Amino acid sequence: MDGVGIKVVGIGTAGNEVLNKMVQKEVAEVELLGIDTNQENLDKLNVGSKILVSENLNEKVQDALKNTDLVFILTEMSEKKNNEIAYVVSEVAKTMEILTVIVVATSINSNGETEEIKKLEEVSDTVIVLPLKKLVEADSSATFDKLFEKRDEIFIKNVEFITNLIKKQGIMNLDFDDVKIMLKNSGKGITAFGEGEGQDKVKLVTGQIINSLFVKNLPKAKRILLSITAGSDIGLTDLHKVIMNINGKFGADQTNMLWGYIEDAELEDKIKVEMLITDFF
After folding, report:
1. 179 within some domain
2. CA-CA to 252 of 20 to 30 Å: which in 123, 210, 222, 275?
3. 149 to each of 53, 75, 156, how far by Cα in Å?
4. Rounded to an integer, what distance in angstroms lies between the CA atom of residue 59 and that of residue 6?
5. The whole model's pTM is what?
6. What is the extent of the structural domain holding 273?
């Protein structure tokens, strides 16, 4: 499916900070929309489309999401108003039959904010959860600046991962319809990212994915979406090992696993793997 319209909506301080970084990074193939309750915050946002929250928020969102097939909603749960805005935006998008993915960072002192996540699941297709508490636990010396930098990096990785599967020409392509099958009404999702280099690159990258901070101790998943990027020197046996090792860890007989392979000349003797698992047993 050509001409897939993809929009990234940043909500509140955290979401809009990510949008500014996406502009700096020149993330391609997506349109950006910032939403905030504070005009001063929106004035600092370097994107063309902005919405100041008001009584007619639904109508403004509906107008902004015209000609959109996939929307990412980026937010953080540190402020209740962000949850409420994310809920409204997602509900409008679903009503418009837009594939709706919320990427949400839970607060550093929470245990997952289960009830809030469940509410967002009700009005979205997928809610990708980024537990900031786990980032803090993994690095006791982390400062707020480092934590937020890592948070923003993961936000952007999630957007690029799924967007590239749809938009980038690969050796093994997935299109929007494939991605839609994997994300539609899939509930909570968790992502993992890994890179390997050298003779043991396959072992390294699969180890990083399987032991990733956010996926440890997770149950098996009914849906696994995988993106593999490597140089032209990667062998079919190595690709098969990556796929089978990951499916063996997170999959089961009933699991639907889709994967895409993109060749990148800059990754000679390297491999990069990105994974989204959803719809847990």
Report:
1. no
2. 123
3. 26, 15, 11
4. 19
5. 0.94
6. 187-280
Question: What token pair was written down for 245?
Answer: 């090792």
Taking only the tens place, the pLDDT of each residue in 19-52 is 999 999 999 899 999 999 999 999 999 998 999 9
Report whether 127 contacts 187 (CB < 8 A).
yes
Residue with tokens 């032991």: 211
Length in residues, the chain: 281
- The confidence score (pLDDT) of residue 118 equals 92
Order the strands of the 31-36 sheet from edge to edge: 49-52, 31-36, 6-11, 70-76, 99-106, 126-131, 187-197, 270-280, 221-230, 256-263
Distances in Å between the Cα of 122 and the Cα atoms of 42, 44, 83, 88, 250 are: 28, 32, 13, 11, 24
Q: What angle do CA 146, 149, 151 make, to 5 degrees?
A: 110
Q: Please report, as a single letter, which amino acid is at residue 36.
A: D
How far, in Å, CA of 156 to CA of 22, rounded? 7
**Do residue 55 and residue 83 come from a single domain?**
yes
Is 110 part of any domain?
yes
